[in-house]
Amino acid sequence: MTSMTYADYLALDTVLGAQHPISDHHDEPLFIVMHQTMELWMQQTIHEVGLACRLIAADRLHESYKTLARVSRIQAVMTLSWDVLQTMTATDYLRFRRVLGTSSGFQSDQFRTVEVMLGFRDGPRHGPHTRAAAAQPSLWDYANAAAHRAGLPIPPRALARDWSAPYAHDAEVEAAWALVYRDEERWWPLYQLAEKLVDVDEAFASWRHKHVLTVSRIIGHKQGTGGSSGVDYLAATLPKRAFPELWSLRTQL
């Protein structure tokens, strides 16, 4: 067996040496660790959503459930982590905020990639990973294609479109998925898939909501460090849903 230590396997020298506070204020390391941890979880989310897309494309729906459940759990952990950051008060943050310069989570290529892979394609695409993901079908596009192959009347426009363009709610897609909910025994694999997707969407919405509350609590309505409108921009994203028809169909059941 190859000699391997715990520290070697986890590259702890690199990981634990990746925090470089610029100020001498006590709370800046927390701010750094918090965001680095978020980036690690987003990296894992990208890994898991990619697998879910491949499984759904291969009609291996049952196998995709575990992967989608894992995504939801990751998002739940990310949401809870805002509670740790909230132990930093507004005055604590102001002591070192200036050292951030123009850097901002708004610039996270991985966060944008997660958004795009789920189906949010109406935001900025700053980095190469986001742009590459936008050229491929989203998780929702793969789900609609699987539903079509299973026999649901998904309209052709939802199956062959400009993947990089924002997705618009489609009444026929909604009607097709409503059939699943009206006869879940017949469509059980798709019914389970739909509920796992709603879990992911709800967890992502919860993360956004907690983010808004955290930013509001710490900086109020100040402009974001990257030039965004801060809380106002974040709050505007709260109504967005990655799989809109899975939410709207419930009204007609």
From TrEMBL:
Domain of life: Bacteria
MF terms in GO: L-tryptophan 2,3-dioxygenase activity
Cofactor: heme
Binding annotation for heme: 211
Substrates-to-products reaction catalysed: L-tryptophan + O2 = N-formyl-L-kynurenine
Pathway(s) per entry: Amino-acid degradation; L-tryptophan degradation via kynurenine pathway; L-kynurenine from L-tryptophan: step 1/2
UniProt keyword Oxidoreductase, yes or no: yes
SUPFAM superfamilies named in the record: Indolic compounds 2,3-dioxygenase-like
Alphabetically ordered keywords of this record: Dioxygenase, Heme, Iron, Metal-binding, Oxidoreductase, Tryptophan catabolism
Enzyme class: oxidoreductase
Sequence positions that bind substrate: 93, 97, 225
EC number from the UniProt entry: 1.13.11.11
Cofactor binding remark: Binds 1 heme group per subunit.
Family per similarity comment: Belongs to the tryptophan 2,3-dioxygenase family.
Function: Heme-dependent dioxygenase that catalyzes the oxidative cleavage of the L-tryptophan (L-Trp) pyrrole ring and converts L-tryptophan to N-formyl-L-kynurenine. Catalyzes the oxidative cleavage of the indole moiety.
Subunit structure: Homotetramer.
Record protein name field: Tryptophan 2,3-dioxygenase
Gene from which the chain derives: kynA
